[in-house]
Amino acid sequence: MQLLSAKPWFRRRRAGLGWRPVTWQGWLVTAVAGGLVVAVLAVMRASSARIPIAVLILALYAIVALLTGGARGQDHVQPVADRSGSAAVAPSVSGGSRAPASPAPRPPSAPSTSAAPVLVVEHLTKAFDERIAVDDVSFSVAPGEVFGFLGPNGAGKTTTVRVLATLIAPTSGSALVAGIPLDPANGVAIRQRIAVMPENPGLYNRLSVAENLEFFAGLYGLRHPEARISRVLEAVNLVARANDPCGSLSKGLRQRVGLARALLNDPAIVFLDEPTSGLDPVATREVHGLIDGLRGHGVTVFLTTHRLEEAEQLCDRVAILSTSLRTIGRPDELRDRLFTKMLLVRTVAPLRAPERVFAGLPGVERWRTDESAGYELTVSDPRVAAPAVTRALVAEGADVLTLTEARHSLEDVYLELMSDDVETRR
Amino acid sequence: MTLFRIWAVVRKELRDYRRNRFTITTTAVMPIVFLVAPLVTLLRIPASLSSTAVQKEVGATSLLLLVVPAVIPPIIAAYSVIGERDQGTLEPLLTTPVRREELLLGKAAAAFAPAVTVAYAIYFVFLVVIHFGATAAVRSAVFQGPQLTAQVLFTPLIALWAIWVGIAMSVRARDVRVAQQLATLGSLPAVGFIALISFQVITPTVALAVGLALALLVVDIAAWRVVSQMFDRERLITGSRARHPDRAPH
After folding, report:
1. Domain chopping of chain B, boundaries
2. Chains A–B, number of C-beta pairs less than 8 Å apart
3. Which helix (H) or strand (E) is A323 found in, with range?
4. Topology of domain A119-332, per CATH?
5. Which ipTM score applies to this complex?
6. How far apart are CA A153 and CA B222, in angstroms?
7. Could you say which architecture CATH assigns to the domain A340-407?
8. Per-residue pLDDT tens for A69-127?
């Protein structure tokens, strides 16, 4: 458990009141203050003695300088460990009941792709001076979809989110966010319909969890937010911590508060920017549970991450970005697109005539052996080929150890695509 | 622009100030210094002093109380935007539907309320002590039209000026301390103006006080508009200005 007073008192650094003019502005302030003192002294000589005035002006500057000099180190509240000890319990979006600690495997087709897309991005480009951060990106997201936006650090994921959240202006291209055209005039309307949780949830440490949520509810124009706040706190299982200052929460709990805040305005799209960055496995699993809960409630989630297992576990579709869009689709589609389908066979002893067993089987395109008792079969459709291979092996009298379909992970897809980038850079 | 959102910002800021040791120290210590010294000076004036000399002393010391609204608000206001960025709350804040004018007005109002309350409270205490403790000549000099008018009118207007300077520095600076130092520097013209009145370079009259107050009001409204224009979301988030200002979000 991390404690506020972990360091002995004699080693603790105090928020010093000593003023050091470390910047040119500091020197400027010092020079002006000096000039002021000289002016005051001159006026004092000219008029009757005004010692209190001189003392006050000097005192004024001394106090301001001393206090601002010590400002940097003040009032930083260190997060402490979860006092409730309930970190292992995954919260549920559906009120008081608790979801399983890890999200269940995704159903094959959760979102409705027939409905009008809730997010449409066309040829979006964002440049900072000469550096292009996002280049000609186009995609769309269906209502209720959990859409993964993958890419290495600096790929343009956060920039894309910031553009779509109307924080920064695109250089070119267009977008429809929650059905509203991305346009300066629509900034307020768009922000009313979306929610963004940045990588750092950004909470006011001196305010309690409930006060943080109350403030944001006010910004969304929610007149009587008490019921809404209770509901979102229940959704992220934080009712018991509602009155705790946010500065006392662990990182995992802070992410949960961030998610609660993102649900306050009942958004059409929730943008989650690296929501599990820096979290331990338990907290990560909690956040995954929450995101899966959002899907269960039909919330559209735009998830940026570079954690591939997270995207594979949670997302209906993923887009892989490296400044420009590399590919987009369902994780299994991407695997199919990039990799050939294979069956892996292992027998106790090498087959006497493998060409006789595998040649001409339906669905089997070619095969090769690893020179022991292992065989890789390239197939067009594993569902057709696997039963035929099984029958052929049994007919041959082979002692089969395993017959499996070779699975390529999203990580394989990602690395395959990113290796192209690496090659290009070379 | 909705008052509801502005009020949400004000309420949050006031809650935050109440729990901020630095703000509490600043708003508590400085006014005491500025109260005690004038009182000591005026209470020590003997009854035998000529009325002209008393007038001079009172003019010089009592107007010093106007330094309070010029000094407290910039320290608070300078933290308003850069402080949000430092604690990582700026991005979540800017992704809400709050308009920049609403946010800035809320921040300004939140800095204004404690500063003006403290300044008026200090002046009230000053008047009470003078009423019961000072000589008759000092009493009649303090409870005089121009002095009271200047105090009542200038306190909020000087505070507003200092607040907009503080917020402007907060919008542009990259460090809280730099913002606070620059804000203090920016509020010095107001202090200098007060010094001119204190040293009777400018003689305070009711007409002058009202005229200057109107001028300050115009300056304050202009300052709000200018600071709102300086509030560039893209610059605050990424550190670089939008290349297409016409496409920049508000």
Report:
1. 3-247
2. 211
3. none
4. Rossmann fold (3.40.50)
5. 0.85
6. 43
7. 2-Layer Sandwich (3.30)
8. 433 333 333 333 333 333 322 333 333 333 333 444 444 444 555 578 999 999 999 99
